[in-house]
């Protein structure tokens, strides 16, 4: 069962949260959580009402339950929970990467409000909640929201999940009356669940619709891209987003093949790519094309840039931002943005002296990104390309 609205209404989240709008609807000052609840009741977040039956359809069978949830002793007092009471019967969804490192950066504790823009399976959020902080989370994927809400129902008094793209977080949090965050996290890309579920169309190994949308109400699928984009545009996407050396050859083959029959499934595309690009390494020849199509379908680089631009205004002085990326294109964007926003002085050869950087809002917490340890990799090989960067908001 999901957290009841009664338990949500009875929570005292107003404390320490400043209201973006000051006075809420109807002239009564309310905390953001109760305003968020009103929005939910108005039907804006229908996933809140999902039944247990729907959960059964979510997960692949035969996977070990890796999740843990709060013990009954967690009374929502804001104090750190005792050790979790052991894994419960929630099917596997996603294993959070760089978990201890994220906690080191965000330093969650009672009284702090943390934003998790990529809730996913709820692993990072759960660890933050276990430290006593409050979490407002977002995900654009209904399945992730259903799963994590069920997993985290024991924290309903300190946890709220909102549907949406983290690119739109200023609007979503603003409408819920939230401002002034102590920490922000995004752990971008797809979850293990996305890759494991053939029907989502992310995997070149499993037959499924060529979809790849994280938000299944999104305007464009991967099939739309391969069936309609001009050849030059396909080539550009494969080159830029996939760094695919065979971009031209693959784009040409796609355009020829779609003249005979439109692409509908993942294996249709993967097999075509295998037929024109022989396999030289362990990597499947369609790997980079699938990465490129996923990025284009979900506009992943553009949403990351928008998020990074907006984040500083939402962090309190001393508040921290942690970003986990999974490929070099994303990491480059994060690295350059953080560098620009943490450089105290700017200098140019034509200037007589260095000038203060008006965009300096952060202190870099570490220069090189953090990567998964051998121990983590042995448990979770998918963490091998994860990179974590972190910054702290300056006071002015
Ligand atoms: C790598 S998983 C996050 C896993 C999560 N940290 C955990 O511990 O389980 C990425 C999640 O972020 C979501 N996501 C990716 N890009 C997003 C975006 N722009 N806005 C909202 N959610 C996004 C995906 O739907 C997916 O559920």
Automatic annotation (TrEMBL):
<feature type="binding site">
    <location>
        <begin position="122"/>
        <end position="124"/>
    </location>
    <ligand>
        <name>S-adenosyl-L-methionine</name>
    </ligand>
</feature>
<feature type="binding site">
    <location>
        <position position="187"/>
    </location>
    <ligand>
        <name>S-adenosyl-L-methionine</name>
    </ligand>
</feature>
<dbReference type="GO" id="GO:0071424">
    <property type="term" value="F:rRNA (cytosine-N4-)-methyltransferase activity"/>
</dbReference>
<comment type="function">
    <text>Specifically methylates the N4 position of cytidine in position 1402 (C1402) of 16S rRNA.</text>
</comment>
<dbReference type="Pfam" id="PF01795">
    <property type="entry name" value="Methyltransf_5"/>
</dbReference>
<feature type="binding site">
    <location>
        <position position="166"/>
    </location>
    <ligand>
        <name>S-adenosyl-L-methionine</name>
    </ligand>
</feature>
<feature type="binding site">
    <location>
        <position position="139"/>
    </location>
    <ligand>
        <name>S-adenosyl-L-methionine</name>
    </ligand>
</feature>
<feature type="compositionally biased region" description="Low complexity">
    <location>
        <begin position="76"/>
        <end position="86"/>
    </location>
</feature>
<dbReference type="GO" id="GO:0005737">
    <property type="term" value="C:cytoplasm"/>
</dbReference>
<keyword id="KW-0698">rRNA processing</keyword>
<keyword id="KW-0949">S-adenosyl-L-methionine</keyword>
<dbReference type="InterPro" id="IPR023397">
    <property type="entry name" value="SAM-dep_MeTrfase_MraW_recog"/>
</dbReference>
<keyword id="KW-0808">Transferase</keyword>
<feature type="binding site">
    <location>
        <position position="194"/>
    </location>
    <ligand>
        <name>S-adenosyl-L-methionine</name>
    </ligand>
</feature>
<dbReference type="InterPro" id="IPR002903">
    <property type="entry name" value="RsmH"/>
</dbReference>
<feature type="region of interest" description="Disordered">
    <location>
        <begin position="62"/>
        <end position="86"/>
    </location>
</feature>
<dbReference type="InterPro" id="IPR029063">
    <property type="entry name" value="SAM-dependent_MTases_sf"/>
</dbReference>
<dbReference type="GO" id="GO:0070475">
    <property type="term" value="P:rRNA base methylation"/>
</dbReference>
<protein>
    <recommendedName>
        <fullName>Ribosomal RNA small subunit methyltransferase H</fullName>
        <ecNumber>2.1.1.199</ecNumber>
    </recommendedName>
</protein>
<keyword id="KW-0489">Methyltransferase</keyword>
<comment type="similarity">
    <text>Belongs to the methyltransferase superfamily. RsmH family.</text>
</comment>
<keyword id="KW-0963">Cytoplasm</keyword>
């Amino acid at each position: 069962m999901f957290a009841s609205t009664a338990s949500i209404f009875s929570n005292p989240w107003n404390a320490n949260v400043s209201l973006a709008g000051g006075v809420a609807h109807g002239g009564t000052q309310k905390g953001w959580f109760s305003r968020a609840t009103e929005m939910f009741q108005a039907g804006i977040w229908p996933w809140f009402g999902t039944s247990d039956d729907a959960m059964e359809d979510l997960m692949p069978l035969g996977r070990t339950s890796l999740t843990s949830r709060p013990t009954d002793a967690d009374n929502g007092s804001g104090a750190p929970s005792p050790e979790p009471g052991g894994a419960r019967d929630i099917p596997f969804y996603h294993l959070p990467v760089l978990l201890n490192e994220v906690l080191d950066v965000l330093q969650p504790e009672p009284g702090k409000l943390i934003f998790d823009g990529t809730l996913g399976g709820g692993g990072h959020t759960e660890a933050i909640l276990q430290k006593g902080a409050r979490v407002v989370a977002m995900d654009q994927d209904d399945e992730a929201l259903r799963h994590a809400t069920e997993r985290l129902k024991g924290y309903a008094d300190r946890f709220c999940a909102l549907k949406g793209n983290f690119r739109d977080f200023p609007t979503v949090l603003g409408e819920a009356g939230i401002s002034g965050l102590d920490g922000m996290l995004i752990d971008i890309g797809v979850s293990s669940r996305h890759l494991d579920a053939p029907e989502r169309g992310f995997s070149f190994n499993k037959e499924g619709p060529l979809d790849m949308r994280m938000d299944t109400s999104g305007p464009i699928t991967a099939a739309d891209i391969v069936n309609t984009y001009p050849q030059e545009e396909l080539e550009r996407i494969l080159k830029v987003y996939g760094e695919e050396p065979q971009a031209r050859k693959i784009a040409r083959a796609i355009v020829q093949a779609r003249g005979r029959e439109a692409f509908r499934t993942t294996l249709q595309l993967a097999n075509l790519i295998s037929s024109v690009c022989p396999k030289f390494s362990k990597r499947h020849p369609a790997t980079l094309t699938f990465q490129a199509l996923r990025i284009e379908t979900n506009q992943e680089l553009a949403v990351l840039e928008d998020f990074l631009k907006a984040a500083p205004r939402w962090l309190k002085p001393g508040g921290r931002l942690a970003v986990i990326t999974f490929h070099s294109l994303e990491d480059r964007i994060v690295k350059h943005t953080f560098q620009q926003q943490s450089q105290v002085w700017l200098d140019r050869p034509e200037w007589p002296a260095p000038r203060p950087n008006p965009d300096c809002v952060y202190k870099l917490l570490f220069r090189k990104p953090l990567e998964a340890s051998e121990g983590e990799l042995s448990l979770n090989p998918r963490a091998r390309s994860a990179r974590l960067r972190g910054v702290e908001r300056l006071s002015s």
